[in-house]
Design brief:
Structural class: alpha/beta
Strand content: 25-35%
Number of helices: 11
Helix content: 25-40%
Bound molecules: NADP nicotinamide-adenine-dinucleotide phosphate
CATH topology of the largest domain: Rossmann fold
CATH class of the largest domain: Alpha Beta
Length: 298
């Protein structure tokens, strides 16, 4: 199978992560990297040896898609330039709300005019998290979604939890819901021999935590959590008076740059399946983004 040639525009954090993934991809090939003149002289890691580093896309061969990894305010202008050449683009600029919609509309007009597809907001957030938000809203149509971004720095050790039998180590953080209610998030490393459910129940029933809603998450190691800078909590609650107490919660921790790069490559795979115009991830079948992996479903 011939690999799809992909060009990288910008070698910053996301560009580097995309480049590394492209080098190990079985179906996508790194056709080259476009850098600003002031950056082109900088040497790249050894793994990129032999990959062309140029100042313009014209200088590269066999490019079927370009990944835009440049600052958000540069993305639209660059997208226009590349779409004009008849080359599809994937971008992930961190824009939200009205700014995101205006950005998508502008890229849609250019992509339609030049008869090529484009994928916008193909990162972590916007991107993968937009898909989760959409799924949550489909499951609880009448509700409210709240997203909170958290960093490892807000976490602190909690002696109360660490003294619960079966707990090896624990980190705690708290936040206010949009209604002003206090919520505690407790991450616990549980002894292998201990009964996880009992440990969680013991923490929840501690008098110190009874007053507030306390959410307990077992994790393999809290040290890794402290080191990881970024995390996100996505929560959707059904309106009062609706059926039962519908409540969906997703807790995520990881390296946002690496996750964004994964999504950008998935979007590049979907490009050949699209007609002209700009698409957000929600408008593309999941199977086109990463294949039909039925075996993953459990
Ligand atoms: N959706 C998400 O979840 C998500 C997450 C992270 C980042 N992003 C987006 O990804 C894009 C790249 O982010 P990043 O963290 O990789 O940024 P970064 O580390 O600052 O890298 C941006 C790169 O863009 C190039 N560039 C071109 N024109 C530039 C200019 N005028 N000023 C500065 N750099 C310029 C540079 O590459 P050269 O030196 O090689 O020319 C620079 O290294 C941004 O649009 C950001 O919003 C999205």
């Amino acid at each position: 199978m011939k690999k799809i040639g992909v060009a990288l525009i910008g070698y910053g954090k996301v560009g580097k992560a995309c480049g590394e993934l492209l080098l190990s991809s079985e179906d996508l090939a790194l056709a080259g990297i476009i850098r600003r003149p002031e950056s082109r002289g900088q040497s790249l890691p050894e793994v990129f040896h032999g990959i062309p580093v140029v100042s313009h896309l014209h200088e590269l061969q066999e490019v079927r898609c370009a990944l835009l990894c440049v600052p958000p305010d540069m993305t639209e202008g660059m997208a226009h330039e590349i779409l004009q050449m008849g080359i599809p683009i994937v971008e992930c600029a961190m824009l939200e709300g009205q700014a995101f919609r205006a950005h998508k509309d502008a890229i849609h007009r250019a992509a339609t005019r030049h008869k090529v597809p484009a994928i916008v907001g193909a990162g972590w957030d916007p991107g993968a998290i937009s898909l989760f938000r959409s799924l949550f809203a489909m499951l609880i149509p009448n509700g409210h979604t709240h997203t909170s971004h958290r960093s490892g720095k807000n976490l602190h050790h909690t002696i109360t939890v660490e003294s619960v039998p079966g707990v090896k180590n624990a980190l705690c953080t708290e936040q206010r819901t949009p209604e002003g209610r206090l919520q505690r998030y407790i991450y616990v490393e549980i002894d292998q021999e201990a009964d996880q459910d009992r440990v969680i129940e013991a923490i929840r029933s501690d008098p110190l935590f009874l007053q507030e809603e306390t959410l307990v998450f077992p994790v393999e190691t809290v040290t890794a959590l402290e080191e990881q800078g970024q995390g996100l909590m996505l929560e959707r609650r059904g309106r009062v008076g609706q059926i039962g107490h519908q409540h969906l919660l997703m807790e995520a921790r990881g390296n946002v740059v690496a996750l964004t790069a994964e999504v950008m490559l998935s979007a590049a795979r979907a490009i050949p399946t699209l007609h002209t115009g700009a698409y957000s991830l929600n408008e593309i079948p999941l199977a086109n983004l990463w294949g039909d992996h039925n075996e993953i479903e459990e």
